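Please review the protein record below. Let me know how this chain folds according to its tokens.
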Amino acid sequence: MQVLASCHENSSPDNWRTIPEGITAEYVAHKRIILQKGFHAEAGSHFTARLEPCLNCDNKRISGFELQDFLINYEETNTNSLKNGKSVILKNDEKSFSIYPNPSPGHFTLHFEDGESTGFEVEIIDMMGNVVYKRENMKAGNTAIDIRDKPKGIYFVKVLVDGKVYTEKVVVE
């Protein structure tokens, strides 16, 4: 069985707060997806939340559409709530995280400051959800990243530190 929830503007689906084992659920929205307290994807379920273009919307667009930051907000009830347990994806204005130049030719600088953290992990994810770059035990400050061997397009840079996940998009031209 597959469940497809399509959300417009800033809505969130009120049903399907628990995705049972064996169920595939896909939430699709144009701007953001917010999973409220109590959301749970059971072990053995397949849950996907994605943003896609709104061709009839009058908002600003980058490369044909706008992908905005999103927030997954939930209270952990057990370790199967989401793939990585306690991670919370935060809006980018809640951290000191930048990428420059952006757009870039595939070689860019990641600047991350988090005064109390001693190490963090970086993943770069393509639009299909594949991890194309991963580096662990990094220190705050500036880090040169080179993905010139990857195809041009939009990528998401994910910084994982102290149970928090920060995301930013980078355009490789």
